[in-house]
Amino acid sequence: MAEAGDAVPPNYGLHEPSRDKVQVTISIQGLRTCTSVTFGRLIPKVNKVATNAEITFKATENGFSFDLVGRDQLQGKHYQLNVEKLPGALDVPRCHYKVRTDGVDIVLHKRDPSKSWLGELSLGFD
């Protein structure tokens, strides 16, 4: 991972678009993207990737970590969000992130969709 200044937590918002997932919307002013095409077996996959930052995301059964180190226009910026205890377990293989201009959306899939997490997460992450 590239080095940058001390990490700070990013501005983020939470919402639960369906019973089985929670979306974390992270705002990174100045984040730029481009379209990347990767070829799998039969169908090409089109993704947006960050052009001026290195992003690392890892989901665990009970939490996740997000790290962004800026370059070019975001040089010196370092955002980090580490969550070790969520209200329930995650379906780790289904969790992912999507890059967009000026932000990142993290999609956390719950293992048990019978309970809403918004009440417990309304004050933010611990």
Question: How would you describe this structure in keywords?
Answer:
single chain, 126 residues, mainly beta, Immunoglobulin-like, 1 helix, globular
Low-pLDDT regions: none
Content-based structural category: mainly beta
- Strand proportion, as a percent range, falls in over 45%
**Count of separate DSSP helical elements:** 1
Order of helices and strands: EEEEEEEEEH
CATH fold description: Immunoglobulin-like
Please tally the β strands and state the result.
9
Rg, rounded, reads 15 Å
- Major sheet characteristics: 4 strands, antiparallel
How widely separated are the two ends?
A: 25 Å
Count of the separate structural domains: 1
Mean pLDDT: 91
In CATH's first tier, which class applies? Answer: Mainly Beta
Shape descriptor reads globular
CATH architecture: Sandwich
Q: State the share of residues found in helices, binned by percent.
A: under 10%
Strand order of the largest sheet: 1-2-9-8
InterPro entries: HSP20-like_chaperone (IPR008978)
